């Protein structure tokens, strides 16, 4: 079945460092790919998405490119801020899945210090 | 603009008690979902609904029930609480079942069963 694998955390960075969080997926159909962010005590918020191969999603300085050849959707940011500290989830949505529900990775905790 | 609202935010139950987690959305979304989030894990789908009067099981439905009498509301019922149901529960909604539609999440209900 469909699955998402993302790098284990926690990831600890200094402010202004470069961020990469790796995400790979397995899907039987043609999924859409998402990154969600969860701040402490809050629900998940959509960070960015890409719906087809070679699409690049971007938001708030974060970017991810849908790479079908490597089945990857790595999250990057050129210069992280303390306010980016959160848990990041990679997810896919495939209409072959019941209810088109999201399939999530386990999440990666990012901690940024000043 | 409230989005997806979940109540309560926190609850402690004794083994064998029952309760209902409430979820309501004001975006006129057809699809609604219940997920549970266990520590260090991604979210797992419990139940989903594609419209009023229609519900179906997700990946981990045992011990739960749902109903969808209106478009806005999608309550989750625990009949006989067990320690294994200690988790954070998230309700989500989306406009349609198209895989490119993002899901909108509530802030979650943190449930402990002792």
Written description of the protein model:
By secondary structure, chain A is mostly beta strands. Helix content of chain A is 0%, strand content 50%. In chain A, strand 10 (86-93) and strand 11 (102-104) form a beta hairpin. Chain A contains no helices and twelve strands. Chain B has strands spanning 4-7, 10-13, 19-25, 31-37, 43-51, 54-57, 64-66, 76-78, 87-94, 104-105, 109-113. In chain B, strand 5 and strand 6 form a beta hairpin. The radius of gyration of chain B is 13 Å and the shape is globular. The interface between A and B is medium-sized, with 30 and 30 residues.
Provide the helix percentage of chain B. under 10%
Structural class of chain A: mainly beta
Beta content of chain A: over 45%
Net shape of chain A: globular
Give the N-to-C terminal Cα separation of chain A. Answer: 41 Å
Mean pLDDT of chain B: 94
Give the end-to-end Cα distance of chain B, rounded to a whole number of Å.
36 Å
Q: What is the total tally of β strands of chain B?
A: 11
Work out the largest interface and the residue count of each chain.
A-B, 30 and 30 residues
The portion of residues forming beta strands of chain B comes to: over 45%
Query: Structural class given helices, strands, pairing of chain B?
Result: mainly beta
Give the ordered list of helices and strands of chain A: EEEEEEEEEEEE
**Number of helix segments of chain A?**
0
* Radius of gyration of chain B, taken over Cα atoms and rounded to an integer in Å: 13 Å
Question: Mind describing the biggest β-sheet of chain A?
Answer: 6 strands, mixed
Radius of gyration based on Cα positions of chain A: 14 Å
Oligomer: heterodimer
| Helix percentage of chain A | under 10%
Number of strands of chain A: 12
Which sheet architecture does the biggest sheet of chain B show? 7 strands, mixed
- Shape, principal axes of CA atoms of chain B: globular
